[in-house]
Structure formats: C-alpha cells, structure tokens
C-alpha cells in the first residue's frame, strides 16, 4: 500500500475519528497513527498480518473500539491496559495464549472477543472488569473453567468449541450471567454443575455436542427451575 493511500486514510480518520484499514497485508501497526492519538475513537486493522501491537497503543486515550481480527498477534503489550475508555476489543483469529497481567484495568470494557486463539484457561483478569457484558472465548484450547469464574460480571459467556471437561460450581454464582454457551466441548453430564440449573441466573444454557444426550439434561434436578427462567426470558424478548 502506497504512502499516498495511507495519507488519505489518515486525513479521513482525523475528521471522522475512525481509522479502518482491513485486508491490506499490513505487517505492522501503522506508526503514523501516532499523530491521531487524541482524534481516534475506533481503529480497525482486521485481516492483516500484524504480529506485534506496539507500546504506543497505550497513547490512544480516547479509543473506544479496537478491532484486530485475523492477524498474527501472539501477545499483547501491557500498555494496551491504559485504554481507560475502551469498550470493545475484538481479537478473533490470532495466536494469543494469554492476556496482559494488567488487563483488569480496562475498566470501561463491555465486549471482549477472543474466539479462535490459543487460550488454555479462562483468564482470571476478566473478573476485575465490572462493565463486561459479552465475552467470547470460543474456539480456543480451554480445558477447565476455574473457581475464579464466579466473580465474572459478564451477561453472556461463550465457551463453544473448546476442550472443556470440568466446570467449577462457582459459575452458578456469577451475578449477571444469563447466557452460557458450552457447545461442542468434552463434558460428561456428571461434570455439569447442577446448580447452573437449580441455583443461578442463567436462562440460556447451550450444551449441544458434548458427551451426553440433551434429553438426559432434562432429567436432572433443577431442570424445571431452569426452564422457568428460560421461558420468562423468552417472553421478555418476544
């Protein structure tokens, strides 16, 4: 991509607050964006070949949305965690194994999408995020859901297409969790905490494609309580 094309994009971004440059084979984060640290609200660099997010990302203090789907990121810089206004972070289809230690400082984060990475566990840093609504951790290598999950504030947690065989009973204590997606994992019915059914806020539990028949789920104690929540929620959205 020529300099003049990039320049045109930068000029537009200066006016709109949006910098979008997708599918251009970019190997690195455009350094020239530094000139717009106080303008930009949205950066979308999806479908490129970016391997590294530079520390200067921490300077975009007004950034609300950062989209870097389908790149080659293997790690994220700690500086990312300085983005106090960031509400949306999409990092699907990268090679991330973990999140920065200070990730819990992204206080405004509402939507986090990490589908198709190499995470092996549900990152504990997510539990400090008070405004988190949707977390997508599908298509990773997660094998178990730890006790810390009970502090997660999300409304929807997507864990489809992982390798989960164990789930902490603490998941039923999530104060706002309404939608739990666990399709295509390695769960035996005995490993699904019954309290999810009998004693949680969860009103949509998606568990197709595990190591048990769905009709067996209906025989579990607490299933009728779950169905009450399911039906009440469905009415609300109907």
TrEMBL record:
Signal peptide: none annotated. GO terms for cellular component: cytoplasm. It holds the Pfam family LRR_8. Gene3D superfamilies: Ribonuclease Inhibitor. PROSITE patterns: LRR (PS51450). Keywords: Leucine-rich repeat, Repeat. InterPro entries: Leu-rich_rpt, Leu-rich_rpt_typical-subtyp, LRR_dom_sf, LRR_domain-containing. This is Leucine-rich repeat-containing protein 57. It comes from Rynchops niger (Black skimmer). The gene is Lrrc57.
């Amino acid at each position: 991509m020529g300099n003049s094309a990039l320049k045109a994009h930068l000029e537009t971004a200066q006016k709109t607050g949006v910098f979008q440059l997708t599918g251009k084979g970019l190997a690195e984060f455009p350094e020239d964006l530094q000139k717009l640290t106080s303008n930009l609200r949205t950066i979308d660099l999806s479908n490129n070949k970016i391997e590294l997010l530079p520390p200067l990302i921490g300077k975009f203090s007004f950034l609300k949305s950062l989209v870097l789907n389908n790149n080659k990121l293997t790690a994220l810089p700690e500086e990312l965690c300085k983005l106090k206004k960031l509400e949306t972070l999409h990092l699907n289809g990268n090679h991330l194994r973990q999140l920065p230690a200070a990730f819990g400082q992204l206080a405004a984060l509402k939507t986090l999408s990490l589908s198709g990475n190499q995470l092996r566990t549900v990152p504990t840093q997510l539990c400090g995020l008070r405004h988190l609504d949707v977390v997508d951790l599908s298509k990773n290598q997660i094998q178990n859901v730890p006790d810390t999950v009970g502090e997660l504030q999300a409304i929807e947690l997507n864990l489809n297409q992982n390798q989960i065989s164990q789930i902490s009973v603490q998941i039923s204590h999530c104060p706002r969790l309404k939608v739990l997606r666990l399709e295509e994992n390695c769960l035996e019915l005995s490993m699904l905490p019954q309290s999810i059914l009998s004693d949680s806020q969860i009103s949509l539990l998606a568990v197709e494609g595990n190591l048990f028949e769905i009709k067996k789920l209906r025989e579990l104690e607490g299933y009728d309580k779950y169905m009450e929540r399911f039906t009440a929620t469905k009415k609300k959205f109907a």
